[in-house]
Amino acid sequence: MIRYLWFDLGYTLVATNREEVYQKTLERFAVTKTIDEITMAYHQADKLFMREYPGVLGKDSRTFLPWYVGTLNYFLGLSLPIEDLIRIHLELAKEQPIQWRAFEFTKPTLHCLKEAGYQLGLISNWDQSAREVLSRNQLEELFDEIIISSEVGVEKPDPAIFELALARVQVTAEQSLYVGDNYYDDVRGCQQVGIHCLLINPYNNQGIEELDYTHIIPSIQGVVDYLGLKSIPQEIK
Fold it and tell me: Is 0.70 topped by the overall pTM?
């Protein structure tokens, strides 16, 4: 019987406004792309990096940004000067800062799960800014336990971070369910300790075509259906 629900943070509970900023960057090069097109390109770039270059996206962006922007442009079908793109993108990001914001469904869904009697935990690969992201989005108080890689010195998919989480709250793997968007960090990490994992992908199997994994949900709202709970009440949506 599941007692504890564990969540990833980035692109599971929160996302950035990066698409809007990049759209404005492209406009400086007389390129017009819709937000949907840019969102899909980011999605595909993220999934490629997760598969081919594990752990890179969690590092300082200065170590991979040109590499990533080139990949992003490939999925957008663009050939533009990378150095100029990055320079203008960084200038625009000062005017319109890229910030992590909770999805509109995040808090209502977490409230629904708590009201159903589940305890909630966070296990995230993140730097020292994680607490600030949680606090600014008023998410910190919704969790019974928070495990952040930079604070505990171990990262997903290392089973040690999951074992630490289970030990802290004194539940078993069988009593836990994990929800995250990175198969190579989240699913594989969970599999090593026996925790079942729901993989988030808003586009079915797009970007993860190489995987044969059936436990995919479009967002954390899918957890409500998976657990057989009633829909989230309209008044808290």
Answer: yes
